[in-house]
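hey can u check if this looks right to u? its 306 residues, i copy pasted from the old doc so theres a chance i mangled smth
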Amino acid sequence: MMPVYENAGIDTRYSCVPPDWYEQPHGWAEKNRLYLDNALDLIERASIKALEKANVDKDAIDMVIAVSTTGIATPSLDALLMERMNLRRDVERLPVFGLGCAGGILGLARAAEFARAAPGKTILMVAVELCGLTFRRADNSKANVIATALFGDGAAAAVIRFGDEGAAFEHAGEHTWPDSLDVMGWRVEEDGLGVVFSRDIPSLTRNEFRDVAMEFMTRNALSFADIDWFVCHPGGAKVLDALKEAFGLGPGALTHSRGVLRDYGNMSAVTILFVLERVLAEQKTGRYFLSSLGPGFTAAFLTMVA
């Protein structure tokens, strides 16, 4: 088991529960209660930070998109956030569940579509994943060991508006492979969510990801030559190596993806937003290509221009 941890490329991860919590077994009901309490606290903090950074008042929010796959909330997290932050009563809501690691990009894509359809509107997109709560002591499968070594907790938020200053979303797309439902996902067990991971994910990424990415590019009259910066979800060290090979990237091209993986682990949907924040902080101009993989088995793509 130790080589899995040693080769994960992760130095630090965060958890919404203390280390001794993992020493005892916990049921699905308890885990989901912890998810609800902690997820709401985290998306509130992330939302306040994002609104302050964008210099936007909370009363200007017209829509809330909430992305998460590591717990169940009904009313959904967007409704809980509206109540917690006392948002306007006419705010539109869109909960997004089940996209896993692809949720960050596809949440941004849905926000961009709404912004384009309703110029002048302001969208708050939040993502939160409490992957640590899915730890299952009794599951000794290789998939669970890998998940235990990779995943961490986190939350992020973004403010999206049509025609605003700053980086602009351009094209979004997806590709879902046939007969791939068992590549990645959850099983609902008595003691929580059991992870589903195929050992073929790195090889599938290495051998097929470039082709489907090229199809996305072609549909939008682009090529890899038009891409200045690659912003890839760090599903794991092996996946990043496969992406580097698939895209023919040089040394340092995925520095921020590896840095976020090192500093936070894989936070599922949240992770790509952490990577994007680091890339945008460098204020590099050009076209950005965002990519991730999630249950389906689905590739998510998004281009941005800064």
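The chain has two domains: 2-161, 168-305.
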